[in-house]
Give the backbone structure.
Amino acid sequence: MAADDHAPSEHTDEAAPASGTAGTRPVPGIVKPLPAEWFVPRDTNAEMRWDALRDADSGTGIGRHVPVERFFVRNHTSTPLIDPDAWRLKLFGTGLSGAPTADRPVEFSLADLRALPAAGISALIECAGNARSYYRSQQHQFVPGTPWTLGGVGSASWRGVRLADVLREAGLTPDAVDVLPTGLDPSYVAGGTDYGPVRRPLPLAKALDDVLLAYEMNGEPLTPDHGAPARLVVPGWVGIASIKWVGTIEVADRPLYSPWNTDFYRMFGPDHPPGGGAPLTEQVPKSAFELAAGAVLAAGSTHRLHGRSWSGVAAVRRVEVSTDGGRTWRRAELRDEPSAHNWTRWTFDWRPERSGPYELRARTTDHRGTTQPDTALFNREGYLFGAVVAHPVTVV
Ligand SMILES: Nc1nc2c(c(=O)[nH]1)N[C@H]1C(S)=C(S)[C@@H](COP(=O)(O)O)O[C@H]1N2
Ligand SMILES: [Mo]
């Protein structure tokens, strides 16, 4: 299939049930309420509003983790409702001893998983397409797909079992190289092609390193929209790796493929190898203000600006803010102990004297020494926009 034949990867052409009547869910495939003060509906997805990380009345920030009810949702199709008691995780393939087949898999119930040693991590989930809309608004490059601003990301504490433990329990052999988790959500259909259920191969090395098969988010059982009864959490990697509603996991002694590591979630375009770059893995550094675009601030008083910065696999080292369109930069004050898989909250005090329009910018440098650039590398699908984002505000 020519890479151009498919519809944009973060977009679905699937017909959503007709809506428009008062009280209809803004995104029919999402179960939880999506109040307009917390979310922007985008196709089958719900983007978190960054200004919702500050309580409107008290100005108090919410903690490092995003409450489940405010967490962004990225669905290729729609949230399935799965009976946790009837659910079984099924593992099969040539990388397990005895090479069990798909119709005679090794099975785990939720109770079986809960009986294995529990593990927890605090980690971000971030869509590869997060911030995509800035390719167009800042770089004048048209890219198809869901036009996220910066709200396709969230942080939570996750609890479950290490995928490594599940794989070993299932009889992992030394020949295994790839695992392929598949979701129980409906098949993804776009541009007239049925791609089957959402599934993306994961190299065994990552699977054994730090991947969690999570059944809890922020101390509660997973909710339907975020993968109940169990999902993967793949720290530092693009969100598509963190398959929700996992039903089966194939374990193979040879490389595995699906549209999600061949057609989608790779870089295509003039700056990339012919036929596309390697399947996307690590996320890139980003920064965001906990402020609405176009926020209005009073002249002549000091404002404490709040924001968060993060970088896929390295801790934040420093954050700088510019209030003059990027000419001068000052350090922001870090408010969290930086950690590799989470964001770091920061503050910056600003006293604008003149009224008028301003552009705020924040940029981070991570512990590998990577600083957010002024422009992001174009790729046809608009993945991994890590450039500094201009945030307009008005001072009155
Ligand atoms: N089964 C399944 N898993 C999935 C998806 C999906 O559509 N189906 N979307 C992926 C993508 S692209 C992202 S960014 C994350 C989003 O997780 P969240 O909805 O919990 O925020 O889930 C990933 N896991
Ligand atoms: Mo995503």
